[in-house]
């Protein structure tokens, strides 16, 4: 694939770099990112984009209400993190900040940012996120996807809201983040954008989900993950290729869901044997190939015991026979894969040269 550059300014795109190199573009859930997206709409570069990477951070704590006109959960931010008195008394007291700094540094905290600097960073992030949600700025994705005639893949890269804001905020993140609702919001916005684009003839057939972790729950509570699972199913409706990286939680949420997938690629993740087998049992009628690299298989009774997923193990799960491995020019790997394997389900599999490996599986299901 062509360059993995991000579009920053329209004039940069049109004057500095040939438009054809922007087969893949990357934007972040941020006010600056949505302004760049508007520039993309005005540029001829949009005619060349095949892959769209959307970096989505977790959202700081909010309330929520259901908008009467649309089938999206619209998030309405509380003022908890914006109000200094509430922040100082309920979120991070000055004393807690000093203790946390000492624990993490195990030394004097002369180099630590000031308490007020921490508060200003949190308030700035919360204010920006609230502005995006309240104004519906991220709904521009529908117009963007509709304007990308060659778009085939949408990649969602999930990240911490405070990951670039220092060690203190990373440590506090679990106390400030809304968990399940943040996933549902981003998934539904992207699902709506894909459906809108498909109605305009844009054939998006691939979804990649990176770092999709299950929300944190207290150990003594039984979480209701049905809404989150439903949001995932909606996202994957009519999708033919699913790529997962650095987390197997999507397989857990969809372990018994039937999807019309033709290809599954998994990379750098760990998953329970029964979870992967359950997903494959539910979808093996449609899946034609499975690519994998650096996948650890855990046993549910002894999760500390892990083994690397192999072609033979995968074929056993699928209850198909393993034939002679062959080289494959395109193993469907995610960009950071340096090598991988693919199991191809079908009557024939060609022999090509390439980095990945492919094993043919007889169609004996």
Structural features:
globular, 12 helices, 365 residues, eleven-stranded mixed beta sheet, 35% helix, two-stranded antiparallel ribbon, alpha/beta
Describe this structure in words.
The structure is a single chain. The chain has 365 residues and is an alpha/beta fold. The protein has a domain at 240-332 and 358-364. It is built from twelve helices and 15 strands. It has helices at residues 10-16, 31-41, 84-91, 94-105, 115-135, 141-146, 167-176, 180-199, 226-235, 249-253, 273-283, 311-318; strands at residues 24-28, 51-57, 59-60, 63-66, 73-76, 153-159, 177-178, 206-210, 241-245, 263-272, 289-298, 306-308, 322-328, 341-345, 356-361. Strands 1, 2, 6, 8, 9, 10, 11, 12, 13, 14 and 15 form an eleven-stranded mixed beta sheet that branches. It has a two-stranded antiparallel sheet with strand order 3-7. It has a two-stranded antiparallel ribbon with strand order 4-5. Helix 8 packs parallel to helix 9.
Helix count, DSSP H or I runs of 4 or more residues: 12
Distance between the termini: 34 Å
DSSP strand tally: 15
Helix proportion of residues, in percent?
Answer: 25-40%
H/E series: HEHEEEEHHHHEHEHEHEHEHEEHEEE
Indicate the proportion of strand residues: 15-25%
Q: What kind of sheet is the major sheet?
A: 11 strands, mixed
The stretches of 5 or more residues where confidence is low (pLDDT under 50) are 1-15, 62-78, 324-331, 346-365
Shape descriptor reads globular
């Amino acid at each position: 694939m062509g360059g993995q550059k991000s579009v920053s300014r329209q004039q940069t795109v049109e004057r500095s770099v040939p438009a054809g190199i922007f087969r893949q573009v990357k934007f972040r859930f941020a006010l600056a990112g949505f302004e760049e997206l508007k520039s993309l709409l005005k540029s001829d570069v949009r005619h060349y984009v095949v892959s769209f990477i959307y970096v989505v951070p977790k959202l700081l704590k909010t309330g929520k209400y259901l908008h009467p006109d649309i089938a999206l959960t619209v998030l309405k931010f509380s003022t908890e993190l914006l109000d200094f008195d509430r922040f100082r008394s309920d979120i991070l007291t000055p004393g807690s900040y000093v203790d946390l700094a000492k624990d993490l540094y195990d030394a004097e905290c002369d180099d630590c940012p000031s308490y007020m600097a921490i508060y200003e960073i949190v308030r700035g992030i919360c204010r920006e996120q609230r502005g995006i949600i309240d104004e519906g700025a991220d709904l521009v994705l529908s117009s963007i996807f509709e304007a990308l005639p060659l778009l085939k893949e949408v990649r969602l890269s999930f990240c911490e809201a405070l990951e670039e804001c220092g060690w203190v905020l990373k440590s506090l993140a679990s106390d400030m983040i809304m968990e399940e609702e943040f996933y549902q919001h981003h998934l539904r916005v992207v699902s709506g954008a894909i459906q809108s684009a498909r109605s305009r003839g844009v054939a998006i057939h691939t979804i990649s989900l990176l770092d999709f972790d299950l929300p944190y729950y207290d150990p003594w509570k039984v979480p209701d993950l049905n809404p989150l699972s439903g949001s995932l199913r909606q996202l994957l409706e009519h999708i033919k290729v699913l790529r997962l990286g650095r987390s197997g939680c999507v397989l857990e949420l969809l372990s018994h869901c039937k999807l019309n997938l033709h290809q599954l690629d998994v990379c750098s993740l760990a998953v329970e044997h029964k979870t992967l087998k359950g997903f494959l049992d539910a979808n093996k009628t449609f899946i034609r190939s499975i690519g994998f690299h650096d996948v650890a298989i855990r046993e549910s009774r002894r999760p500390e015991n892990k083994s690397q997923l192999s072609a033979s193990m995968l074929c056993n799960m699928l209850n198909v026979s393993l034939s002679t491995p062959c080289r494959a020019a395109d193993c469907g790997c995610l960009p950071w894969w340096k090598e991988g394997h693919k199991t191809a389900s079908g009557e024939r599999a060609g022999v090509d040269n390439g980095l990945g490996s492919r094993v043919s599986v007889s169609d004996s299901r």
